[in-house]
What we know:
Layout: H1 2-12, H2 21-37, E1 41-45, H3 46-52, H4 60-68, E2 77-81, E3 88-92, E4 96-100, E5 105-109, H5 112-119, H6 127-135, H7 139-150, E6 156-160, H8 161-168, H9 176-191, E7 195-197, E8 200-202, E9 209-215, E10 223-230, H10 243-248, H11 256-260, E11 266-269, E12 272-282, E13 285-292, E14 298-303, H12 306-336
Antiparallel strand pairs: 1-5, 2-3, 4-5, 6-10, 7-8, 9-10, 11-12, 12-13, 13-14
Amino acid sequence: MNEIVKYSNELHRINFSALSEAQQNILFTLLYEIKHQNADFLELDIIKISELADINTRNKDYFIELLNGLTHFQELKFRYEINEQGDLRQEVIFPMIETQLKNNKIFLKVSSGFRERFLLVNNEFTRYELAEFVSLSSKYTKTIYRYLKQFRNTGLWKIKYKDFKEILGIPSSYQTCNIETRIIKPAIKQLTQEKTLFDEKRIPFKNLKIKKIKGRGRGRGGIIEALEFTFDKETNNKSKEDKPEIQAIQPTENIEPNLDLYTSKLISTEFGNARIFNVVKQDNNLKVTYALTKNGDIKYKLFNSIAELESNIEQAKAKNQTITAEKINNLVTKIKI
């Protein structure tokens, strides 16, 4: 259990400060969808994503430029410990991102390690919190919001001042007074304002206050060493509309490890042989995403059960072996001649 919390905290420190405000809105909308669909591969509707991320699609040039900028997401990496010896592994969060503007589709592959160690561990955003997040007008405020949400159950976030500047990506040219007036004060103002979301009034963080912890040094009052954010901790009273979503995203420990075993297996489809890309449980079916061996086109197929999937895999395996046997016989014949 301690390892799970450790993973979550490490991954939470991934620095997204290089992303613009709009890019952060899209990123966390995608993470919201990944978590709630509980899958490594997703086919998403661009219009739905833009609505959730509060992106204006009327300016087509800006919108297309923003979508093209999704390639920056593939620069996002994370590291985590893989054993008790402290050995580290590094992965790209999004190994594949494909946008099809004509079809209004985004095809997304997320690292299973990232999804399992971060999205399934961390409570992350409900629908209300995603709406709050995208409504914030500064990338600095968005980052502060995320960190405060990590400590929602304690109502206390204490951080070293140098770490605070690092995770927010504050320019080195900013003096302490600049950080106070341009970042901290506007953030506190936004995060304590009442918002109306889905016809419900909410305050992101009630009684949010910040305390500067200073050490000895030159200047009036000493040098700031740490910041301490305090606010009313959250209760467990969630909106009824959120509860079904939260229940739906709980990991199914007895099923997921088995489904992972089918990755890269060969299956038969109406389009020909294909390699399995991802398998997830969808309602009472198994949704199998696959790539055709001939041209790499990505499609999906529903199976009623694991038994049906395994039967299909065996058929594809036998068919592939038959083809291979024919090729070998032809080769032997040619050699004999």
